[in-house]
Design goal:
The structure holds 2 protein chains of 2 kinds. By secondary structure, chain A is α+β, with helices and mostly antiparallel strands. Chain A contains 4 helices and 3 strands, in the order αβααββα. Chain A has a 3-stranded antiparallel sheet with strand order 1-3-2. In chain A, α1 packs across α2 and α1 crosses α3. Chain A is globular. Chain A starts with a helix and ends in an 8-residue tail after the last helix. Chain B is an alpha+beta fold. Classes of the chains: A alpha+beta, B alpha+beta. Chains A and B meet through α2, α3 and β3 of A and α1 and α3 of B.
Chain lengths: 114, 885
């Protein structure tokens, strides 16, 4: 994680995995979840989700399957695989450590005590 | 995994487009729901999404990559499934699996082993530079009724080599087996005498230490020099880095060691030789002795020359020598052989025969595997058609069947490789001593590859062919036509019948070959040798000229040996001869009968000359036919006496009594020997026909320094156990003497039969294996055809046929197949067995008894193989069979 591009890409992946943790979602659902949980802080090009989803699918982190959406339209749903679940927990740990480290460096209160 | 019958996936384009469209539509709907006008909502959605085209391209490439890796994964999944499926099939039919695997292994293993031996012994070039230009020159006296490969006289050899431009180099060699003393216990050393150019110019192999022979080394009176083998230098001399100045005592004569040959040097003559000496040739004496055959040769052709041209030139030269030297060269020619051919001449026919039989074995093995796989594939028609009806792709079914047969073939191949390695070692260990180049034989990887490809290829081919056939498009209709037994129909059965008949035919060929060799070997084994080897132990002593210069010293020494050995407990009789039967030693001389006109030059008769002591006859078990044997009264200075053998009497005294007649050996002033008895012929050089004239003289009257002593053990004693006593007695008498080649005579006989025994054993092994394979094939086909005809048999029984009648029906049909195979096999064998003729003794290649016996064995065994399914057929319950319909 040396440059911002990688950071961004990694962020997208881990957020997608987190979005799918609760259950299968289509791509739009993932975008919506990210928007809502970050209160719009992370505004990303929604289109970048899709290549990321397919890449995760190729790597076996998620599985994609055509299904029917809540408004009765054909949509592609994504689901976490066991590998994806393992990856999510590992990435979450990394992210927390990363955030704490950055927080300590910036002197954010409550983050320097450990 | 994709289930068979799943509709094809949509193209990545449609899929990706649909996903993007869905997203944008949801977004627009959401924005409208928040109160945004449609047009603005669409713009906002597109803005939030980003570059649609770029996203689409990225997604498409991801989808394509994913599908590719999915396909690979699926392919692996299916293969591992196929392999597991195949393994399940093997476990379910262990008998079938075992038979296929063992059959292939047998075919591959046996062929690898035999091919490796044949390749190394017959086909590989010899390990010398330009070895294809090396040859051997022999004297050809076949026009005089003698052998075509007689040894050479020095003068004739020199004339031929010098007079034939196509022959650029030549050298001579002779035997040299002295006793080494002065370095521990006296020891017999096997070696050769070679003329100067043998190593450097003919074989083109140089010593690794010191020098080879120089032209001066051959001169009379030159210092005695010795070139030694690498192991002799290491073990006997203690591996000095320089050898110059090292001296050894051979037959009490000092020799200076001048050179050491490379460690892997094996001369084409006397392969176990450890020392080589230079002959000190007397050119004058050698030039006069054109008629004496005391040398063997190796020659090298000039670059670019070929053997045929050289032969033509040599024939012309021989004619000139004949007119120049009528005394010695009348009716004499020369034979030039390629060195490799000459070395393997004795082994060649046998090896080709073995190779032929093992190739037939491989063919029968492949046919068997094909047959088994065919039978099995067709018997699975029903299963396959069900799976195909359930949507299994045809390629998938084919692949599964191929996976099964390839797996079997690979298993068989692996086991075959193992068998090949073990078999080759076994062959090398069992090969008769003296098989040329046998020591270098090892499994040949190329050959292993070839046989494995053949057998595994057969597995794939015969797995694939029925798979394609069975899984064909009209499977359903064929299934209906052929009934529920699902057995591949008449055409499949016909093919399998033909294959089985072919197997029987090939098996018969191999069996006849083995039968003929077995009968021949039996004849050889029971041949009347003319002597009794069973309780006799022989050894060789060489009395050095330095301490035994003359008869005056030799006679008492030999007499002393005989007396001391005879006194050893368990010894019954001890006798001495100069050339023991089957030892490879003998010497002949031209003889003349007193009172007869001497024949013209070139037409004199020669007889083998043997010098024997009075007790030799009983020690060796010779049979006296008339007159008397040598007695102790026949001493030096007494009346010279001789015994002659049956052949000499038949050829020279037909209808006359030879006793009392006198012969001489053509030497001016030479003695006249009075014939006092006639002895039975013995097998001297070979167990095969060996009818040559022989004369036995009294050892005391014509003593020689090298002699074989024969010790006959008392009844019930093992002669081999006398060896330590023999050694002790010899060294007690003279510590510088060594008893060499201490060998029970029965062993000499066994050695003489070793090549025939080896060949016969191998051929019998292969014949047995081929027979088993053919019978397994027959059994398989009969079983399958009984299964296919259950309904017909059931109907017959329902209509009142007896069980025995049904069984008879099955056996009769099987025998018909066997009959066809036997008929074809007899024709094939009749055409093929003449190649065996030169190997056979006392039996003709078309021996009717062997043919008849083999055919009878095949038919009997085949009937036995058919009897099992026939018995099953006779137990068919017609009610069950018909109800099942």
């Amino acid at each position: 994680m040396t440059d911002s591009l990688n950071l961004l890409k990694g962020t997208v992946d881990v957020l997608i995995l987190r979005a799918l943790e609760a259950g299968p979602l289509h791509g739009y659902g993932v975008a919506e979840w990210i928007e809502s949980v970050t209160d719009g802080t992370l505004l990303l090009e929604e289109g970048t989700l899709y290549p990321a989803l397919h890449r995760l699918q190729r790597k076996g982190m998620v599985e994609g399957e055509w299904g029917v959406s809540d408004n009765n339209r054909r949509a592609r749903f994504y689901r976490l695989t066991a590998a994806g679940r393992r990856r999510l927990s590992r990435d979450t740990e990394d992210w927390v450590r990363y955030a704490r480290a950055v927080g300590r460096a910036l002197g954010v209160p409550g983050e320097g005590g450990r | 995994m994709t289930l068979p019958g799943t509709p094809p996936e949509p193209s990545p384009h449609d899929e990706v487009d649909e996903e993007i469209r869905f997203h944008l539509e949801r977004k627009v709907e959401r924005l409208i729901a928040r109160g945004m006008p449609r047009a603005e909502a669409e713009r906002e959605a597109a803005r939030r999404f980003g570059n649609v085209e770029e996203v689409r391209m990225k997604m498409r490439s991801e989808v394509r990559r994913r599908r590719r890796s999915d396909r690979v994964r699926q392919w692996f999944d299916e293969w591992s499934q196929d392999v597991r499926f195949a393994a399940r099939q093997w476990r379910r039919n262990p008998g079938f699996t075992l038979v296929v695997v063992l059959t292939l292994a047998l075919g591959i293993g046996a062929n690898t082993a035999i091919f490796s031996v044949v390749d190394h012994v017959l086909l590989r070039p010899l390990p010398y530079p330009d070895a294809d230009r090396l040859g051997v020159l022999w004297t050809d006296v076949s026009r005089r009724g003698g052998p075509a490969d007689e040894w050479l006289s020095y003068a004739n050899f020199v004339d031929v080599v010098e007079g034939t431009p196509a022959v650029s180099e030549g050298a001579l060699w002779g035997g040299f087996n002295p006793t080494l003393t002065g370095r521990g216990e006296a020891m017999a050393v096997s070696g050769a005498v070679v003329t100067e150019g043998m190593f450097s110019r003919v074989l083109k192999v140089e010593p690794v230490i010191g020098r080879g022979f120089l032209p001066d080394d051959d001169r009379p009176g030159a210092p005695n020099v010795l070139v030694v083998a690498h192991d002799f230098w290491r073990d006997v001399l203690g591996a000095p880095p320089e050898v110059a100045g090292t001296t050894v005592l051979l037959n009490d004569v000092p020799y200076e060691v001048v050179g050491v040959m490379p460690a892997d040097f094996r001369p084409p003559f006397v392969p176990d030789a450890r020392i080589w000496a230079a002959p000190q040739l007397d050119p004058v004496g050698q030039a006069q002795n054109r008629g004496g055959f005391s040398w063997r040769s190796v020659v090298r052709l000039a670059p670019g020359a070929d053997f045929d041209a050289a032969r033509t030139a040599i024939d012309g030269l021989a004619a000139r020598l004949e007119s120049d030297h009528p005394q010695s060269n009348t009716d004499m020619g020369f034979a030039l052989l390629e060195l490799r051919d000459d070395m393997v001449a004795d082994a060649r026919t046998g090896l080709w025969v073995v190779l032929g039989s093992v190739v037939l074995l491989l063919v029968v093995a492949c046919v068997n595997v094909a047959n088994l796989l065919l039978a099995r594939a067709t018997s699975r028609t029903a299963e396959l058609s069900v799976r195909s009806a359930l949507g299994a792709r045809r390629s998938r079914l084919v692949r599964q069947m191929v996976a099964e047969s390839v797996g079997l073939a690979l298993l068989g191949g692996a086991l075959g490789v193992l068998l090949g390695v073990v078999g080759t070692r076994l062959l090398v260990a069992l090969a008769p001593a003296g098989t040329p180049r046998i020591e270098s034989v090892a499994v040949d990887l190329r050959i292993l590859a070839v046989t494995t490809v053949v057998a595994v290829g057969a597995g794939i081919l015969f797995g694939l062919a029925p798979a394609l056939q069975v899984s064909g498009r009209n499977l359903q209709s064929r299934l209906r036509e052929e009934g529920r037994a699902g057995l591949g129909g008449r055409s499949g059965l016909r093919l399998r019948n033909a294959l089985v008949a072919a197997q029987v035919a090939l098996a018969l060929v191999v069996l006849v070959g083995a039968g003929l060799l077995t009968r021949s070997f039996d004849n050889l084994r029971t041949v009347d040798l003319g002597f009794e080897p069973d309780r006799a132990l022989s050894f060789f002593v060489n009395l050095p000229v330095s301490r035994y210069p003359d008869g005056a010293e030799i006679r008492p020494a030999i007499r002393e040996f005989e007396q001391r050995l005879a006194a050893v407990p368990g010894v019954e009789r001890v006798g001495t001869i100069n050339s023991l039967p089957l030892s490879g030693f003998d010497g002949d001389a031209t003889f003349f009968i007193e009172g007869r006109t001497p024949p013209p030059p070139g037409q004199e008769s020669a007889a083998w000359l043997r010098r024997v002591t009075p007790d030799y006859r009983e020690a060796a078990g010779l049979r006296l036919l008339s007159g008397r044997w040598i007695e102790s009264a026949d001493e030096a200075g007494g009346v010279p006496v001789a015994l002659v053998n049956e052949t000499l009497v038949e050829r020279h005294f037909p209808g006359e009594n030879p006793i009392g007649r006198r012969i001489d050996f053509g030497e001016p002033g030479g003695a006249l020997y009075e014939i006092v008895g006639v002895v039975a012929d013995i097998r001297h050089f070979s167990i095969r026909d060996d009818r040559r004239e022989a004369v036995y003289l009294a050892f005391d009257q014509v003593p020689t320094r090298s002699a074989f002593v024969v010790v006959r053990a008392a009844e019930g004693r093992d002669p081999a156990l006398l060896a330590p006593e023999v050694r002790r007695v010899v060294s007690d008498l003279d510590p510088s003497l060594a008893a060499q080649r201490i060998t029970p005579m029965a062993e000499l006989v066994a050695d003489a039969l070793a090549a025939d025994r080896f060949l016969t054993t191998l051929l019998n092994l292969f014949a047995a294996a081929t027979l088993v394979l053919a019978v397994v094939g027959l059994y398989g086909v009969v079983s399958v055809s009984v299964g296919a005809r259950l309904r017909e048999l059931g109907v017959r029984m329902a209509l009142g046929a007896e069980a025995s009648g049904i069984a008879g029906l099955v056996v009769r049909r099987a025998l018909l197949l066997v009959g066809i195979g036997v008929g074809a096999g007899v024709v094939l064998a009749f055409m093929g067995t003449p190649v065996l003729a030169s190997l056979l003794y006392g039996v003709r290649a078309d021996d009717p008894l062997t043919f008849l016996l083999v055919a009878a064995v095949l038919v009997t065994v085949a009937a036995g193989a058919a009897a099992v399914p026939a018995w099953r057929a006779s137990r068919v319950d017609p009610v069950k069979v018909l109800r099942a319909e």
